[in-house]
Design brief:
Elements lengths: L2 H16 L10 H15 L18 H13 L3 H7 L1 H18 L3 H12 L2 H7 L4 H17 L3 H14 L1 H21 L4 H4 L2 H24 L20 H20 L3 H14 L6 H13 L2 H9 L10 H15 L5 H14 L20 H16 L7 E3 L7 H5 L8 E2 L6 E5 L6 H10 E9 L2 E8 L1
Parallel strand pairs: 1-2, 1-3
Antiparallel strand pairs: 3-5, 4-5
Length: 467
């Protein structure tokens, strides 16, 4: 056991949490953590049937139950919610370090590779927020490392919990199975039918039990799994025609490519593709092949499903693939003479990716990089301005994910709530962190005047007044 590394990773995890204690709930975490968590906090930790249909996305309420439990024990607050994430942040960093160590054996190189891997902007964004992503990534890498190091009991544990975090966790379970299978037949070069022995079948059967139990419970008690008939996000599989499907499918292919290359990852992808071609005769294909298997098959069920449905994809869906590609890029560096220069360029591209802020009318993944950090203090200043100037929050319009009570975002007990924007409200709280439609932008420009602007590093929060 490397106690020095454990201490370093624990200190790093604590520092991450100390720096993010005032970051509120963002995007889907408002629903998965605070809204659903509050219902369980008030009605019983495991009274999952009490979650109203209007806020029920169908996913296992793993994070909500975890939040409600922590609030019962330590009090309901934003700080408590962040500290509850600490074991999973530490666990994820530890598992990533084990993942890196499997492919890199020199200690100094292990540290450099680890830094490049965790520098991914989307991973960093998840580490500083309260979300189910960090939890399922921990269980994913626990399962993956169990495959790489032949630790059967950790594979079973990882799969059982991974399938209980969310439906995407269940898809990652399938990704783990595919990695295990293709590693067996391609990397280990064994017969495919030998993979399906009693031990393997039993391992995955036991690992799937919690997910099967949850889906069965949902079908019995709710009658549906993921398409909530009452929720505003609608039916992801409802197409008007075959042409409508193919248009959406083509658009999703472009979006998927954009997600994999966004926030500086384009430099890594170009470096990998170029190196795989020009250095193909000297590469260690055993390591390269295994990392490509992990990068492709870890999220293959997720991106295949995402291509077929109408719901938008999130950058965070594909973090396992990003991290495998980052490690592959690091391994490929050694086949060039300018190793330090190339490493610096790759690392810089990822770190600088956190500074990217697109124009207001271009939808940005604000939970996929650290670009959102200034927003929290700006939002607090804007709310203070509303209070100082006697502008009621209850009559002030805003946009997703801010259309909710202050308590659902800040966990401060403040039940005042903004209202949804229609264009008829006297005041509006707008931020470029919110992704608006063209129609909403048009209404803002025509009918409102900026009263006050708060801004830091290209992030803005504005108070607007009707003309």
């Amino acid at each position: 056991m490397d106690y020095k590394k454990i201490c370093c990773l624990l200190i790093l995890s604590i520092l991450i949490k100390l720096c993010s204690l005032e970051f509120g709930m963002l995007w889907d975490n408002v629903l998965f953590a605070s809204k659903m968590g509050t219902v369980l906090f008030e009605n019983g930790l495991f009274n999952w049937a009490s979650i109203p249909p209007t806020i029920d996305p169908g996913h296992p309420p793993f994070l909500a139950t975890l939040m409600a439990t922590s609030w019962c024990l330590f009090g309901k607050s934003l700080a408590v919610s962040h500290w509850v994430m600490l074991p999973f942040v530490f666990g994820l960093l530890w598992q990533i370090s084990l993942f890196v160590n499997f492919f890199i054996h020199h200690k100094k190189l292990q540290l450099c590779a680890f830094v490049l891997v965790i520098a991914d902007p989307t991973l960093l964004a998840q580490l500083v927020l309260v979300n189910p992503e960090v939890i399922q990534l921990f269980f994913f890498f626990l399962s993956l490392n169990a495959i790489l190091n032949d630790k059967l009991h950790f594979k079973v544990i990882g799969l059982m919990f991974l399938g209980m975090v969310s439906y995407r966790g269940m898809m990652l379970c399938m990704g783990i199975f595919l990695i295990d299978f293709f590693k067996y037949i391609w990397t280990d070069q064994k017969k495919w039918w030998a993979f399906f022995d009693k031990k393997t079948i039993l391992t995955y059967a036991i690992g799937a039990l919690p997910a099967i139990a949850y889906i069965s419970w949902r079908l019995i008690t709710k009658g549906w799994i993921s398409t909530n008939p009452l929720a505003e996000w609608g039916n992801a599989w409802q197409y008007q025609s075959s042409l409508d499907f193919f248009k959406n499918f083509s658009r999703n292919i472009i979006v998927l490519g954009y997600l994999f290359s966004d926030f500086g990852r384009i430099i890594l992808l170009l470096f990998i593709l170029t190196t795989l071609y020009i250095k193909r005769k000297v590469l260690p294909w055993n390591k390269t092949q295994l990392l490509l298997i992990i990068a492709i098959f870890s999220t293959i069920v997720i991106y295949t499903t995402s291509l077929l449905i109408k719901n938008s994809m999130g950058h965070r869906y594909f973090i396992p693939s990003y991290l495998a590609l980052s490690l592959l890029a690091f391994i490929l560096i050694e086949y060039y003479h300018l190793t330090k220069t190339i490493y610096t360029v790759l690392l810089s591209s990822l770190l600088l990716g956190n500074l990217i802020v697109y124009p207001d009318d271009f939808a940005q993944g604000w939970d996929a990089s650290l670009a959102h950090i200034p927003y929290w203090n700006l939002r607090k200043n804007a709310i203070h301005y509303l209070d100082e100037n006697d502008i009621p929050i209850s009559t002030t319009a805003t946009f997703f994910p801010n259309i909710t009570t202050l308590d659902h975002i800040d966990l401060n007990g403040d039940q005042r709530s903004f209202i949804s924007f229609t264009g008829d409200e006297p005041f509006v709280l707008y931020s470029n962190v919110y992704n608006l439609t063209d129609q909403e932008f048009d209404l803002l420009r025509r009918k409102y005047t900026i009263l006050k602007t708060f801004s830091t590093r290209n992030v803005r929060v504005e108070i607007l007044k009707a003309n």
